[in-house]
Amino acid sequence: MLEKKELILILDFGGQYNQLIARRVRECNVYSEVVPYDITIEKIKEKNPKGIIFTGGPASVYGEDSPRCAKEIFELGIPVLGICYGMQLMTHILGGNVARADKREYGATEVNIDNSSVLFEGFDTKNNFLMSHTDFVETVPEGFKNIASTDTCPNAGMENKERNLYGIQFHPEVNLSVNGTQVIKNFLFNICKCSGDWTMSSFVQDSIKMLKEKIGDKKALCALSGGVDSSVAAVLLSKAIGKNLTCIFVDHGLLRKNEGDEVEKIFTEQYDLNFIRVNAKDRFLEKLAGVTDPEKKRKIIGEEFIRVFEQEAKKLGTIDFLVQGTIYPDVIESGLGKSAVIKSHHNVGGLPDYVDFKEIVEPLRSLFKDEVRKTGLELGIPENLVFRQPFPGPGLAIRIIGDITEDKLNILKEADSIFREEIANSGLHKSINQYFAVLTNLRSVGVMGDERTYDYTVALRAVETTDFMTGVWSRIPYDVLDKVSSRIVNEVDHVNRVCYDITSKPPATIEWE
Ligand code: XMP
């Protein structure tokens, strides 16, 4: 791991905003990590944080299985900020009283503030923050002082200045809380005495140094998809170990128009690494012939991807390190409970079995997606790659409804390229988060000149979203849609109809399969 000068530990008690707290702290240029609430005292000491934040959570401190932490945490001399459930837990453990209100307090709420507290330095005596709770602190623990209240919540904030322990009932991390980040800043800089020297450029320098030390003259191998994460990981590694890095780019032929060539061009012309492109389209199309079930398509592509990668890797002999583009949300999310599988999103179904490597390196393991992009820019990766819209691992295979043939693939590539071109021309690419064409399995009657046609229908999909878990269909102006439609029908053979998908997610998903 990187040697971190300053760390804020965020103990996860199951609240929905936990990642957001970590992000807010990092936005203040202080590195933060989310860890399970039951982290041991030894581990905390080992990590040596400048401060600890307890997140909110859905439990009640009186619940039988409610998540708790050890009392010793408050005796380490490390500042602690408890948010919502975190404040209630601090109260409960330190001898105060938590009670249940008759009804939930929810929404942006006016909070009366004691702005002589360092936590609220610079605030007026009233401020709107998001409250979302049923339990509340009825009596603060001994040694604590009340520093905030609302009409219905007598203790919306508390402090024990001598011991550097603070609690707030509201959520400073969400946008609804006015100046919420300032509360976090005050905790970081006034109380934890952080200096705020975590920047992407320091991350890049530290990572390169660490990777150089770790890998030295040994060999590393990276599976490059052309997506943002694997590209940034590869470039970071290449800066550290140069030609000792080999990247294998498995081109399954299901990428967008010209995409394979673009990836090859960037990596062979701009970076000092060994680049192997495997053109495996025929192999993939053979395996996919006649397959219509979306999950089956994903599985076949995932497996075949590994087989191709293994075959190439074997030729290289023993490899010391395998590079993976894992990013922080993957790490946090994999630690949470199971939710229903709507789609099996992982295009690579695990690690290759037969590649002989000794260790895995995950240089982006601690970064959020926007930090990965910033790292990419720091490394000089072209903007069009860094800000590339998400593209699914199985590629166009899940945008061709029904069975896949080479002809259908070519039709879709052309139609999709026109759509993307016109979205870029209209400047809408900055506000639409994902947009693409789908080749439906539907053929219908049309008329071209004096001729009857019986050709495919292309659907256009464009969504605005921040997390890709929910999203709304984008209100693209009619004239842009009109241009895209007439260009597709005129320029792409075998398409005589274009539809625009006006369903949001939920109930639809972003991809059609
Ligand atoms: P859905 O269709 O589930 O998509 O609303 C949400 C986001 O995930 C992407 N997606 C995938 N990514 N492999 C991937 O790597 C997949 O099989 C896959 N299916 C969907 C989709 O493009 C969107 O960004």
Q: What helical percentage do the residues reach?
A: 25-40%
Order of strands across the main sheet: 2-1-3-4-9-8-7-5-6
Which cofactor or ligand species appear?
xanthosine-5'-monophosphate
CATH homologous superfamily descriptor of the largest domain: HUPs
Strand content range:
25-35%
Principal-axis shape equals globular
Span of the ends, CA to CA: 38 Å
What low-confidence regions span 5 or more consecutive residues with pLDDT below 50? Answer: none
- The class by helix and strand makeup works out as alpha/beta
On the 0 to 100 scale, the average pLDDT is: 92
Proper CATH architecture of the largest domain: 3-Layer(aba) Sandwich
Most strands sheet: 9 strands, mixed
Gyration radius, in Å: 27 Å
CATH fold call of the largest domain: Rossmann fold
Number of helices: 14
Number of strands: 18
Assigned CATH class of the largest domain: Alpha Beta
The count of domains is 3
Question: Brief overview, please?
Answer:
The chain contains 14 helices and 18 strands. By secondary structure, the chain is of the alpha/beta class.
Structure characterization notes:
- The chain has 14 helices and 18 strands.
- It has 513 residues and is α/β, with parallel strands linked by helices.
- The chain folds into three domains: 184 residues, Rossmann fold; 187 residues, HUPs (Rossmann fold), CATH 3.40.50.620; 103 residues, GMP Synthetase, Chain A, domain 3.
- The protein has a nine-stranded mixed β-sheet, sandwiched between helices.
- The longest helix is centred in the middle third of the chain and has 22 residues.
- It is globular, with a radius of gyration of 27 Å.
- Bound molecules: xanthosine-5'-monophosphate.
- Xanthosine-5'-monophosphate binds next to loops.
